[in-house]
Amino acid sequence: MSIHRNAWRRALSAAAAVLLAGFGLATAQTAAEAAASCTATYSKVWDNGSAFGANINVTNTGDPLTTWSLSFDFPGNQVITQMWEGVPTPATPTPAGAAVTVNPTSYNAVKGAGATWTVGFNGTYTGANNPPPGVSCAANGNGGPQQQALVVSPTSVNVPEGGTASYTVRLQSQPTGNVTVTSTAGTGDSDITVSAGASLTFTTANWNTAQTVTLRAAQDTDRVNGTRPISVASSGLTSVTVNATETDDDDGTNLPAPSLRVSGNKLVANNGNTYRLLGVNRASGEFACVQGKGMWDSGPVDKASIDAMKAWNIHAVRIPLNEECWIGTNGSPSGAAYQQNVKDYVNLLVNNGVTPIVEMHWNYGQYTGQGAGCSDTAATCQKPMPDAQYAPTFWTGVANAFKGNNAVIFDLFNEPYPDAAANWNATAGWTCWRDGGTCTGISYQVAGMQSLVNAVRATGATNVIMLGGLAWSNDLSQWLTYKPTDPAGNLMAAWHTYNFNTCSNVSCWDSQVGAVAAQVPVSAGEIGQNSCAHDYIDQVMAWADAHGVGYTAWTWNPWGCSQGNVLITDYNGTPTSTYGEGFKAHLLTQNPYS
Fold it and tell me: Which residue spans traverse the membrane (predicted)?
């Protein structure tokens, strides 16, 4: 029956070719008439936070196959280390985030009609372990090869106003010659344009290498989230439509802050675009409660105050908190009242499109060694490390308050300095930083960063976590070596830099911060200079912009420039001269999605 069926199909296809040729529409009919086809689905089998196993389940949906191949693009830093029932290209271990082609082994190329089989593999990863957007299956059989096709991922993108978004294109199978693929914007929101990759060329050598097309949305004041279809096409192939939507950011649209996750060395928003934390610190939640100043040192935390920030193009606000005020062991307001104030401000920021970064600034535990800010046991100053007595309880409470809202970022501890307590013994300092316990020079039991990560994740919260290094978060030299384990894969590094710090020059930034930023996202949780000028932070921001590093300046409080590092003279957002003026001018040129 199969012989007669294929003969009938070839005869019908030949007749159709003659008819199409009469209308000038003849195409490569040997590809179109193929009866061979297959489908494939990807499923993760196990995952321990740094390694994983996956299966690709394949089904022959057409006539018997003489051979087959699979293609997929890893969206993150996944690496295949071992594969069975298939042979990957590139060979194992594959490069991180590679476009992978899988061919059959010597014994499983031939598959009957309706056959199903599984290709399995093990691998490793850093950051997020997201599945490929799809797996393409190409099949060859007695009826000819499966039709060439365009592989486009993703087919729906959000383009931030004034920013960019992208998708990738490759071919499903190897062509016999060069193939040109064009991306053309259709009718719709004219703000969205193809800014790079409008014409791509694929050869017999690079056909399986994904190439990028970049879309841009113009900055305007129309307050419209328009759409525009982008046609991805090549002569003789079925076109693919990418649906592009402009994400408007004009005041008044009240778009919420994006949910965030770590992907490789970038923060990624829920629209799939990379995102940098660009903004300010709003101090007082760490001290006002213990100094009889109420909650926010009498400053406003309402929508008008947030609008004043947004007029500077501020997209992130870091909020220092007091451990004992949160859990109610000291200070006024304390406990439930303090927690509610924090929740209200964080939720107001999110609802108005600003990313909140909540962090533990002051904590319990007596310390009188090098760098001590006070001799108090209570949380009235910066201590060298979090305390084991209360810090896990604090972070359990904060995580429970904001889990499920991944627009909120957790900064576990402001400025660790256990190295100073250990008389600048780096090994002792970094070991204390990660593991806690009894630490040299610190009289109280320490909660290490690993224990605090564990406390957050035990609640089910998957929020991105920031971790500052040693030397008051200025030293990231061994951050990667001592990086805690995170089952959610959502850790990033926090870095603080002022003109009086040790690591305050480009050479140090390149060697220390740049090395970390090449592997995980980095954001400078505090930048500043104590001279009221902005020449130092100008250098910091220029370097950070070039390396994909975010920054939040100290501080959005009208305390007078005589104290240095003060951005405003009032909560209406009037900048100080010249520190605030310089920071504002630079921030207005930046886009968090760039």
Answer: none
